Amino acid sequence: MPETRRYQIRGVVQGVGFRPFVFRTAESHSLGGWIRNDSDGVVLEIQGNPSQLEAFIEEVRTNAPTLARIESVALLEQRSNGEAFDGFAIQTSERSAQARTLVSPDMGVCEDCLRELFDPADRRHLYPYINCTNCGPRYTIIRGVPYDRKMTTMAAFPMCEACEREYNDPYDRRFHAQPVACWDCGPRVWLRDSRRPEEDPADPIGETAGLLRDGAIVAVKGLGGYHLMADARNEEAVAELRRRKRREEKPFALMSASLDAAREYAQVDEVEAELLSSIARPILLLRKRRGGGIAESVAPGSRSWGVVLAYTPTHHLLLRDELDTVVATSGNVSDEPIAFEDEDALERLPEIADAFLLGNRKIFTRVDDSIARAVTLGDRTEVTPLRRARGYTPSPVKAPFRPPPLLAVGPELKNTVCLSRGEDLFLSHHIGDLKNEATRRSFEHAIESLSKLLEVQPGLIAHDSHPGYLSTAFAREQKALPTVAVQHHHAHMAACMCEHGLTDPVLGVIFDGTGYGTDGKIWGGEFLVGDYGSFERVAQLEYCRLPGGDRAVEEPFRVALSLLQQAHGSFSEVDVPVVNERSEQERQVLGRMIEQGVNSPLTSSMGRLFDGIAALLGVRERCRYDAQAAIELEQLIEPGARADRLLDWELHRDEQPMRVDPRPLVRELAGEVERGAGSAAELSLRFHSTVLDMVLRTCLEIRERTGIATVVLSGGVFQNEFLLRGSFETLSEAGFLVHVHRQVPTNDGGVSLGQAAVAGWGAR
Ligand SMILES: [Zn+2]
Ligand SMILES: [Zn+2]
Ligand SMILES: [Zn+2]
């Protein structure tokens, strides 16, 4: 007896070829019915015998198109009588009052499109903007909803007849692919070479490859913005790029044509290979291999490369014939946001780029490359994001409760913003450090475009409790809306809880660089107990002076002197290079600053402790990029290693909060350096292992007192692989249930999610 069922399917099911897929599935089962988009996803009716219907829906669940993500399949209605359908139909959608569908992130070019790209018989042979419903741009070109061509930057390109036919054919891979285009109707790329302005080469991409092979630096338009490219095997070209970009030592990312090309210079395991080749195509940090032929100045002193595989058709056309790997770094001058508009790129980058490979498909929202790393945690390998942008935004994180519509504006560094819609928390792409006008504009654009895309009118704004952040100022300027200040490390903890759907109280081990504390001091080595609603600071790293404030972040020797002063009473007594290399005047000034607390705020930052120890051990006294000292201190050791002998430290249990006191450890390390005993690597391993001991013993004490055995690890310091892996393993062995970040960065890039969760919980 045939019956008719009505289903609603939610998730990423629009703009990803979902309806034609259901159409084809229904046809292949010879079932009648219809499907249409609705405000929550798609609704469909399907008619047949119960067993046929089961088989059909099972296939829909399991074989959905690459970009689709089914969150739920709900049976809304079931009836056994009624009219028989004449075949299966795709109904065009009515625009509903509130769009609730999820827009897909931008995706790398798919295998099918790649095959066509290099097929001389295909009508899109070598066409640099080839795409289909399974791949290509999405988030970066959307101006608003509903998601169709009119609302994208492709509106400027009316489809030719052939493209229109594909667009309207449910059997075609390009059915309703909004950015569909071809040589006849779509956007083009061209080369502008400042040294030969009159020339307009017929093969601009081939010409660009030639320039790169000759050692030129070229700005190349990608999905979310411009890259600056140079031949990665040409030491001179890479060094020149560093000079022009004013970027002294911070590693550049590499782009390779294929997995095989990447394997020549980097170690790639199975999980990494899968992630590298995924359509999200993040930059992945991979161990260097010896003799890979990559210029040393790509990532000087680093043990890893940041590697991304070619992800646009242009990249694939560029990276062939003797040029398989290039440096692909963001098209910007240090600290500014990445250029994404042609005029902007031409204006800002001429000092850096010899030539520009331009294109006229406009980017509406600039989005950087994402960065991720695979980490071993116990018996499994987890991927953890370090920067969440292209390929991931705007996929939401599901909150374990339903906050009201709100906006969280994030912290100052590595800023992201977050908007809520129902249980979905939408983290923006990585915006950057809110320190200049350009980044601030990009921050405002992100808020505006994301609210428009999600059709959310926030009724509340959450911000960092730091009074001086630009994001805090922005929140306060929105006079019509109430604001909620969220303590920085509470937000870190809440972000990790939210990712894992936790609502019961947890123990948050939050090791971070800088965050404004409830006592007005700079926090960052915190053991918090609480949930979204509130928290208690049960233990902290002992406060230490930061002579010169922010300058001490760039000059870790200042922190070393302060630690020595604290441990020994006076650093002048200590016979170690970090003291001896200071001038007499420097010693006096810094000594007085620390002594009297002049321009020397107190901090409990774990990040600073790592910096100070790095300077004490002679690893690095001045940083040229964020966290360089701590990174180099970690690079001396292997993530899975453990020292036989720990350093001494104390837990002052009677204080409120308890104090994790590193003074004995500082004295011991200074003694070893004075005696010349132990290499920097050995001492680094002893220090790192001792920090694991601090984590373990402090957590045990807290569990003893509170009975809480669930730990979340968050904060920028957990980008340290040794520490993340070690804390996870040590705590797990001691019977704790340990959660680490998997969807959003552990650094400040994840803070807006936590702000949204905390404010949303309070207002739910
Ligand atoms: Zn495709
Ligand atoms: Zn066309
Ligand atoms: Zn932080």
List keywords for this structure.
single chain, 764 residues, alpha/beta, Alpha-Beta Plaits, DHBP synthase, 7-stranded mixed sheet, 23 helices, binds zinc ion
Give a brief description.
By secondary structure, this protein is of the alpha/beta class. The protein contains 23 helices and 30 strands.
Task: Describe the 3D structure.
The chain is α/β, with parallel strands linked by helices and about 775 residues long. Among the domains are: about 5-90, Alpha-Beta Plaits, CATH 3.30.70.100; about 105-185, DHBP synthase; about 190-360, DHBP synthase; about 540-690, Tetracycline Repressor, domain 2. Helices cover about 30% and strands about 20% of the residues. It is built from 23 helices and 30 strands. It has a ten-stranded mixed beta sheet, with helices on both faces. A hairpin with a 5-residue loop joins strand 22 (about 505-515) and strand 23 (about 520-530). Helix 15 (about 555-570) packs across helix 17. The longest helix is centred in the C-terminal third of the chain and has 27 residues, at about 680-705. The protein is globular, with a radius of gyration of 28 Å. The mean pLDDT is about 95. Bound molecules: zinc ion (3 copies). One zinc ion (ZN) binds near residues 160, 163, 181, 182 and 185. One zinc ion (ZN) binds next to helix 4.
The level 1 CATH classification of the domain at 189-359 is Alpha Beta
Task: Please tally the β strands and state the result.
Answer: 30
* Main sheet record: 10 strands, mixed
Question: N- to C-terminal separation?
Answer: 47 Å
Mean pLDDT: 94
